[in-house]
Amino acid sequence: MFYNHILLEAYCTVNELKKCKLHNEHISIECFSTHCKFLSYTEAPNEIALVDKNGVAMHFIGFGGDMETTDDERCNNIKKWNSICKKKIDDAYDWYMADHKKQ
Fold first, then answer.
1. Partners of 42 in beta bridges
2. What CA–CA distance (Å, rounded) separates 11 from 15?
3. What burial letters (b/e) apply to 10-44, b meaning 16+ CB within 10 Å?
4. The pLDDT of residue 14
5. Does residue 62 contact residue 48 with C-beta atoms inside 8 Å?
6. DSSP letters along 27-89, please?
């Protein structure tokens, strides 16, 4: 058995809440597990996120928008962005563990 975390950007095409058979106000894992016909999704490349207890992103940011420069620089800038994100994740773990050991 193996597993992987996958970050997707999901869309719900329901226009009225009453049409949602799950009566959800937000997209959730149930939308995927029930194969909801109103659910659509796409890849979310070069994003970093913090998710809640249900795996739904509370805070996120991805490479793009005002981070974009020229096409020639894009590949190197994404590599730099990914390196920064990985370091921040490692730093968060180290910071938590150092603080946790003090208690």
1. 9
2. 12
3. bebebeeeeeeeeeeeebbeebeeeebebbeeeee
4. 86
5. yes
6. --HHHHHTT-TTEEEEE-TTEEEEE-TTS-EEEEEES-GGG---HHHHHHHHHHHHHHHHHHH
Rounded distance between C-alpha atoms, residue 81 and residue 92, angstroms = 17
CA distances from 80 to 5, 21, 76, 93 (A): 22, 43, 6, 20
Q: Is the pLDDT of residue 71 over 80?
A: yes
Assigned token pair, 9: 């950007």
Return d(Cα 59, Cα 29) in angstroms, integer: 17
Q: What confidence tier does 61 reach under pLDDT thresholds 50, 70, 90?
A: very high
Query: Quick one: which of 41, 58, 42 has its CA closest to 50?
Result: 58
